[in-house]
Write a structure and sequence with these properties.
Helix content is about 30%, strand content about 15%. It is built from 9 helices and 8 strands.
């Protein structure tokens, strides 16, 4: 008997028909290329998750940009670096990247040198940022086809507490809990659309930004894996002009939408 083509299937009475996306029938062989922008515990934990299964089975880290505290353009004097910390904590990201033979960049990102390397050598499909002291210019954050995202400590409402020391401001406002929000990077500082939010973490009474980063980030492994995995599941198989096809697909019933469950803000 001849196998029936999808397009030849008879319609079912009273049931809306599926609109199949042919891209779902082919699984790409190439791993997703991802670049990390980060330092301290945020950059370290994001990078570590990308270098270990299950994410490492689906993506390749192609470059790491990190803070050099000796340079004025990272604004260390107004960020978490102004609080007591160790030299070892400053080197968490470059040491981890070096252990995996990854290219590390610690200069300005608003330079022709970095743009050339970013576009021609790193060629990222996706960029993830956590604790990075430079604004990302539009001609950089618009390059990766799967998006450019930042992890930012905030209140449960979004946008909230943008800027270099959100935890310090939250403490002055009397906040008792903090979350980490994953949001799109745009020209507006810490103001892009939120795509995910971690569980609440209590703020200790003697907290400062460094102490809170030491507490929160070791708890974020599952959050990072869930959010990054959801981006891959929802957008990897679609070409650039069809990345939102899941929003338009008509189905008779739905057991569960991975994109809606995982990309949507999680309480």
């Amino acid at each position: 008997m001849r196998a029936m083509n999808v397009n030849e299937m008879l319609p079912l009475r009273g049931v809306q028909q599926l609109r199949f996306n042919p891209n779902l029938l082919t699984v790409p062989n190439r791993k997703v290329r991802v670049a990390v922008f980060g330092s301290f515990y945020g950059g370290y934990h994001v990078l570590r998750e990308l270098l270990e299964p299950p994410l490492a089975e689906r993506m390749t880290v192609v470059g790491v940009a990190t803070d050099d505290l000796t340079q004025p353009f990272v604004h260390a004097d107004v960020r978490l670096w102004k609080y007591p910390h160790t030299r070892a904590e400053e080197l968490l990201v470059p040491k981890l990247a070096g252990a995996h033979d990854l290219p590390v960049y610690s200069g300005r990102v608003k330079t022709p040198e970095f743009e050339r390397m970013f576009v021609e050598e790193w060629k990222p499909d996706l960029c993830l940022m956590a604790t990075f002291g430079q604004m990302i210019p539009r001609h950089i954050f618009e390059v990766p086809r799967l998006g450019f995202y930042n992890f930012h400590h905030s209140d449960v409402n979004w946008p909230s507490y943008p800027g270099p020391d959100p935890i310090g401001t939250m403490l002055r406002d009397g906040k008792t809990h903090v979350v980490i929000t994953m949001h799109e990077v745009t020209a507006l500082l810490d103001g892009g659309a939120a795509v995910g939010r971690s569980h609440k973490v209590p703020l200790p009474p003697d907290a400062n930004a460094v102490k809170v980063h030491r507490i929160t980030w070791p708890q974020m492994g599952s959050f990072i894996r869930r959010q990054v995995g959801a981006i891959l599941d929802a957008r990897l198989d679609a070409p650039d002009d069809e990345c939102d096809f899941l929003h338009e697909t008509v189905v008779a019933y739905r057991i569960g939408s991975h994109r809606e469950d995982s990309i949507a803000i999680v309480a």
